[in-house]
Amino acid sequence: MRVYVPLTLSGLTEAHKVGELGPGPVTAYGVTPGLREWYLSDDVEELEYAALNRAAAASLRMIAGRPDERPRRVVVAIDVADQDAVADPDRALDASSLGEVTIAVALPLTKAAAVHVDADDAVDDVSAAAAALGAADQGDDDAQFIVDGAEDHELLWFGVQEIPALIG
To answer: Engineering a disulfide at 26: which of 48, 88, 93, 103 sits with its beta carbon 3.0 to 4.6 angstroms away?
Structure first.
């Protein structure tokens, strides 16, 4: 199963330094039964894209919790054995946890397939979205519009060998 691990740039720096995503348990996003039911598609690529977007939203939450963090969402795509990515069956249809899985152990960065990161032109929107996230969570429609503005930016694809340039 391909899973998408949300990070920040400082988290990616740390993972690169130690060579792994972790320690476990690691929260990631993947194509779970709940995500399949919510997204209503059988197209695996569309479902993986939805999981990637769920991870990007989790990355935004990480940024919002750290005011000194550089405002670029980061997601690492990595393949794990199906049985290693465990979804909580009690939260399968909970909108806040759609696609969420837990991997018990740290994940070697050498197993990563790609890194997805916001482009430079997304920084202002991601920064504004991080600042507006709390109000959006409380139902403020204007704040939600700002958060949605960050989600309009597609994450760029980078090979794992490009991590030093991303964190430099």
So the answer is: 103
